[in-house]
Specification:
The chain is an all-beta fold. Helix content is 0%, strand content 51%. It has one domain: Beta Barrel (Thrombin, subunit H).
Length: 117
């Protein structure tokens, strides 16, 4: 049995293509969801012209799917611990079993420029 003790809010924006341009449809209210949220292994380090800076990343486990961006949809935005994260990758685990779940990696949308190393 999986323990999903954290509460997250998921915002899922829909949209459509008009010619070569993506147009967002009206935003829906965030949906509460149970999850297990953990710091991501190797919490992302980014090398940039400004130097190395931290990008806060989390691993999220849920019973319901989360979505990363693809050609047909925007990535889900997850709010946890008063910070917003964008879903980058999602993998289903244990499909077809009682323990089926989804593991996602999300990156912070907050500016962590002041945390330059």
């Amino acid at each position: 049995m999986m323990i999903l003790k954290d509460r997250i809010l998921v915002t899922r924006k829909s949209g459509h293509w008009e010619g070569n341009r993506w147009v967002n449809d009206s935003s829906k209210e965030p949906v509460p969801m149970r999850a297990s949220v953990q710091p991501s292994p190797g919490d992302g380090m980014d090398s940039s012209e400004e130097g190395r800076r931290r990008k806060s990343e989390i691993s999220i486990t849920t019973k319901k799917p989360l979505y990363a961006s693809d050609k047909n949809r925007n990535a889900d935005i997850v709010e946890w611990n008063n910070e917003k994260y964008e879903i980058k990758t999602v993998k289903p685990w244990g499909t077809g079993t009682r323990l089926a779940h989804y593991k996602a990696l999300a990156e912070s949308l907050e500016d962590h420029a002041d945390e330059t190393l």
